[in-house]
Write a structure and sequence with these properties.
This protein is of the alpha+beta class and 203 residues long. Helices cover 38% and strands 13% of the residues. It contains eight helices and six strands; from the N terminus they run ββαβααβααβαβαα. Strands 3-4-6-5 form a four-stranded antiparallel sheet. Strands 1-2 form a two-stranded antiparallel ribbon. Bound molecules: zinc ion.
C-alpha cells in the first residue's frame, strides 16, 4: 500500500498509470506494491489487467486457439530478489565471478522486473505445463504464441520484450511475457511497432 514516506514510482503520464515504465534503468523500490491486486486465471495482477487477461483468454478459447495458461503475474520485490539470487547461485559453478552478470541476462534483478507492477503476465500452454517446459522460445511458434502476438493489443496487452527490441528494452526476447498498457496504448504501440521505451519517448 502506498504510504506517505514511500516514494511513488515514476509515472510518465499521470492520466495513464498503466504506462508505468520499469526496466534495468528505472527501478521500483523495495516497498512498491500495487493496491488493487486481484486474482485471475490463477495469477495475481492489478484489477484492470486481471479483467483484461480473463477476456483475452476467453476470446482465445472461443477462437479455438487452445489452452493458454497464465503462469506468473505479480511478484513482490522480495520474491524477485529470491529468484534472482537463486539464479546467480546456480550459475556460480560455471561462471564464477561472472555469475551476477550472466544471471542478469536471464532474470531481472529486484526492482527491475515489471512483474512487480502487477501489469505483466507470463503465458504458456497446457501441454507445456504438463511437460514442465513452461517458458520457452518454442512458444512463439505455437498457435497460442502467434495468436497472442497478433491479437493481445485488442485486450490491452503488448509483447513487451520483442526480438528486434532487445537494444531498446535491455531485456532478451521473451515470447511469453505480456504487459498490460490498456487497449488504446496497446493498439498504438502495435500499429507503430514500438516498444514501451520508444512509445514513452515519443510522448
Ligand atoms: Zn515475465
Amino acid at each position: 500500500m502506498p504510504t506517505q514516506d514511500q516514494p511513488e514510482p515514476k509515472v510518465v503520464n499521470k492520466n495513464a498509470p498503466e504506462l508505468i515504465l520499469v526496466n534495468k534503468k528505472v527501478r521500483l523500490t523495495r516497498e512498491y506494491e500495487p493496491s488493487d491486486l486481484t486474482k485471475a486465471r490463477g495469477v495475481t495482477l492489478r484489477a484492470p489487467a486481471a479483467l483484461a487477461l480473463d477476456k483475452m483468454l476467453s476470446a482465445a478459447g472461443e477462437a479455438g486457439i487452445g489452452d493458454i495458461r497464465a503462469v506468473s503475474g505479480y511478484r513482490s520485490y522480495a520474491t524477485q530478489d529470491a529468484v534472482h539470487s537463486a539464479k546467480i547461485e546456480r550459475l556460480r559453478p560455471e561462471y564464477k565471478d561472472g555469475a551476477e552478470l550472466e544471471a542478469e541476462k536471464l532474470v531481472a534483478p529486484p526492482g527491475a522486473s515489471e512483474h512487480q507492477t502487477g501489469l505483466a503476465v507470463d503465458l504458456s500452454i497446457a501441454s507445456y505445463m504438463e511437460r514442465d517446459y513452461v517458458l520457452n522460445y518454442d512458444f512463439a511458434d505455437t498457435k497460442a504464441g502467434r495468436w497472442l502476438k497478433e491479437n493481445s493489443w485488442r485486450y490491452g496487452f503488448v509483447l513487451r520484450y520483442a526480438e528486434e527490441k532487445e537494444a531498446q528494452t535491455g531485456f532478451s526476447y521473451e515470447p511469453w511475457h505480456y504487459r498490460y498498457v490498456g487497449a488504446e496504448h496497446a493498439q498504438s504501440m502495435y500499429e507503430a511497432k514500438v516498444c514501451l521505451e520508444e512509445y514513452l519517448a515519443e510522448k
